[in-house]
Amino acid sequence: MTRHHRFLPLASAWLVTRALMLWLLAHDSLPLLGGRVAREVWRLYHHWYVVLSHGTFPAHDRLWQYPPGAGAVLLAPGLLPGLTYLQAFVAITLAADATVTAALARTGLRPGRSLLGAGLWVGALPLLLRLPFARYDVQVTVLAMLALLALSRSTRVCGVVAALAALVKVWPLLVLVGVAKGRATRSAWTWAAAAGAVVFGLLAALFHNPLAFLWQQGGRGVQVESLGGTVLNLATRAGWSGRVHYRYGSMEFTGPYVGTVAHISLALTAVAFGLLVLWRLRARRWTEATPLDAALSAVLLFTATSRVISPQYMVWLVGLAAVCLTSRHTTQRPVAWLIVAATAVSTVVFPLYYRDVVASTWTGCALMLTRNGLLATAAVLSFVRLWRSTHAETPSSAPAPWTSWTASLPTRSPSSSSVTTTPRM
Fold first, then answer.
1. I need a surface site. Which of 4, 115, 361, 402 has the fewest CB within 10 A?
2. What radius of gyration do the chain's Cα atoms show?
3. 304-321 pLDDT tens trace
């Protein structure tokens, strides 16, 4: 089958699914869909757009909890004349989606690679219905995905794109955790630091209060959709006196022991960080898939232990799982399917049955147990499989075929004559 014929079904699926997602967004007010999700764009994002247009970040807005790069994303719709803010925002999101779909397909068509990653992205994102087009998580996830896809060709490009993504939302820095030790790591992190410093300096020169987002993070509580929130949901059924209130842009628990649950969540995040550092220090074997698998494992661990797990966070996990599946050597295939299942349940949670979750009904508790159980299982399984793949003993009579892969990673552009190509299997 030619490359053209292999890509045609994928392109057709993308067109059909995205048309359906746009139709759902256009009919956002239908009662069957569980509530309007687009108003965050035309109300909150547009409000921030107006503030940013005056050269300042919304420093006194408790809902502003994002790094300064987010300002650039929220200002971008203003570059499309003749459209409303919502229309322009959706157009940019759709363009980002199309770009990364093409990048996944191009990678998947290379020798030794797979189109399964592109298929996962095209097929799993619509499980969130129209929500991905009403949040800017698609844009930041696309940047993180492009950084990982660029790694096999240029560590410099990978570092720069990862830094740009981290300036929009911090989590994309985790995509660099699995870069092979030695020269590749030095190159990727050096270019990430340099690019991040330059872009941050530019934003700080153009806008007032670039660090305003840091002031709002300390007051975050326990969101009802988090793992800790599930524990408190069940405690409510057992007679606990806590309540749910709208705070910091999400529904959070207040009441006795909420602070303790929040501290436990932070402690689990610290443990996750420690596990990743330990893995990094003790890992002995790298394959072409290891950086991709490590990125997914890291983001899964930090997401599962977070005090906040909003439904749009599933976009991050679907995107990174898709990148993993472009490699035939990935260890994360079962993890990817757990993420797909968790994504489907997340849509049932929000917006379809969100009132039950907030009210801590048995239905809401069951949904959150299912979704967060899938996420916790995926996080543990992902890390275990990553650990085993990089710590397995190699028979002395048969050296690992990928032991030279670290040294072969290019730190210059592919056009350089000194760059060696990574062997394909």
1. 4
2. 21
3. 999 999 999 999 999 999
For CA atoms 24, 30, 32, 34, give the dihedral sign. Answer: positive
pTM equals: 0.90
Cβ atoms of 65 and 218 within 8 Å: the answer is no
What is the distance in angstroms between the CA of the first residue and the CA of the last residue of the chain? Answer: 19
> For residue 351, is the peptide bond before it cis, meaning its omega torsion is within 30 degrees of 0?
yes
The pairing of strands 243-247 and 222-223 is unpaired
The strands making up 243-247's β-sheet, listed across from edge to edge, are 222-223, 250-254, 243-247
Tokens for 71? 């300002």
Which tokens in the block code for residue 41? 């764009």
Q: Are 152 and 158 in contact (CB under 8 A)?
A: no
Q: What are phi and psi of 415, to 5 degrees?
A: -75, -15
CA gap 88, 85 in Å, rounded: 5
CA distances from 327 to 108, 176, 283, 320, 351 (A): 8, 17, 20, 12, 34
